[in-house]
Structure formats: C-alpha cells, structure tokens
Amino acid sequence: MTAQTNAQIAQAKARTKARTKARAEAKTAAKIAAARINARFTGEDARRFKELQLKTRQSASAVLREAVRRYHSQEVKPRRSAYEIMMESGLIGAFEGPEDLSTNKDKYLTEALRKKYPHHFEDEEPR
Q1: Pairwise CA distance, residues 11 & 80, whole Å
Q2: How many whole angstroms separate alpha carbon 8 and alpha carbon 12?
Q3: pLDDT for position 23
Q4: Would you kindly state where each structural domain of the chain is located, as residue ranges?
Q5: How far is CA 84 from CA 12, 76, 96, in A?
C-alpha cells in the first residue's frame, strides 16, 4: 500500500468514527433532553451572576449553560480512542509485514509455528 492509500484509509476511519460519535452523542442528548436546576447564589457569587447577566444581556439559564460549558471544557479531558492513541504514538504503520496481518493473524501465526516447530504438526496436512 502506498502512503497516500494509508492516509486515505486513516481519513475514512476518522470520518466513520466521528459519525459514530455524533450519533451516540445525539442519542445521549435525546435521553437527557433537559435538566431542571434550582440554584441559590448568595453574596459575591450573586453579584457576579447578576453582573454577567447584565453584561451579556442573557437569561439566567443562558448564563448558567455557558458557565457549565466552559467549566466542563476546562475540567473534563476528552477521551481518546485506542486508535487515536496508537496513531499519535506512531505505532500504526510502523512495522513491516503483510497488509492483511491484522485480519489474518491466525493464518500467519500458524505458518510461523509450522516452520519453527514442524515436529508438532507432523500429523496434520499443511493448509
């Protein structure tokens, strides 16, 4: 396979993964359509909240939603898939071998074992 073909395959896999993730997020969002929150601010927090509402000209709900989004983006690190981690590490495509090794690993392992330990396979016919 050429480097260009590998890049195209990687791009296609990334697009498929993104679509799958978007579908899962949409399902989750549909399940959690709304969460009603009753919050009580006092003192300096109440003043800050009112100041934000006045400055942004947004409703209390809009200010809270934005605050939660920003806090969440700072505190929660996005999860990376094993595929993303392996791609970033450079391990995917770093080794030589047959192009179909990942899908036919049993076949190649059996062949290698037959060559290394032929006496264990004397009773079987080669495949």
Answers
A1: 16
A2: 6
A3: 80
A4: 1-33, 35-95, 98-127
A5: 13, 18, 20
